[in-house]
Amino acid sequence: MNYQDVILSRESGWIEITINRPDKLNSLREQTAEEILAILAEVEHDREVRAVILRGSDKAFCTGIDTSEFQIAENGYFDFYRFRKRNRKVNRLFREIGSFTKPLIAAIEGFALGGGLELALVGDIIVAGANAKFGLPEIKLGMMPGGGGTQTLPRLIGKPLAKELMWTGRRITAAEAERYRMVNHVTEAGQAIDKAREIAKSISDNAPIPVMMTKSVIDRGIDMALPDGFEAEGDASFLLYFTKDRDEGLKAFKEKRSPAFRGE
């Protein structure tokens, strides 16, 4: 597949997807979403890929949805509603990243605004350069978040602060985002990708099936009652008894060597 809006690079154990629309500050259009979705669908079944890094440029990670995508034909609002509900690829992107079975790390430099921040929030880990700026400014345009922000952000930072940020449209710095526990790490400007790669390497060295299982149990369990979450964890943990990687991990531990996990 030839990509117009993204650049794909493959590393040893992970891939990197770079949003590449510099003239639009890496805003998302249908083409962008289609390309990211296609890459994720392909690597979902590639055992050599154990993590994904999503990045932008030094100036902007992603500034949301391309405003040209907001154009709706006269008397076409209900048609667009149906399109958005079922077929629109940008909306599918926000929904499907959450169910992707491999860790997705957002490496953010510059602006992560609106749908750009929401895109990072539906992933698993956020690493930010010191120059990063975060915000959900839709309220200033007479709109509201539409890529999951009203659901993902309060789960991370709590309802009162999430409401303040959405109702004021205020931008926050990387340091504030780290203090609010919105991001995992803040690096020097320009070095977010290095930290993201360090994390991807550490993840890719480990057994991919328990990584997948823990991701699923954490993401589903956060909305479960605690006893149900314990039950889900217990079932997933027991399933690992049937994996070859568990046997390899225990054998390597006894032999005092590094394990060679294969995702089996």
UniProtKB/TrEMBL annotation:
Keyword Lyase: yes
Keywords: Lyase
Alphabetized InterPro entries for the sequence: ClpP/crotonase-like_dom_sf, Enoyl-CoA_hydra/iso, Enoyl-CoA_hydra_C
GO-annotated biological processes: fatty acid beta-oxidation
Sample GO molecular function, one term: hydro-lyase activity
UniProt-listed Gene3D superfamilies: 2-enoyl-CoA Hydratase, Chain A, domain 1 (3.90.226.10), Lyase 2-enoyl-coa Hydratase, Chain A, domain 2 (1.10.12.10)
Residue ranges that the Swiss-Prot or TrEMBL entry lists as coiled coil: none
Pfam families: ECH_1 (PF00378)
Protein family (similarity comment): Belongs to the enoyl-CoA hydratase/isomerase family.
Protein name, as recorded: Enoyl-CoA hydratase/carnithine racemase
Classification of source organism: Bacteria, Pseudomonadati, Pseudomonadota, Alphaproteobacteria, Hyphomicrobiales
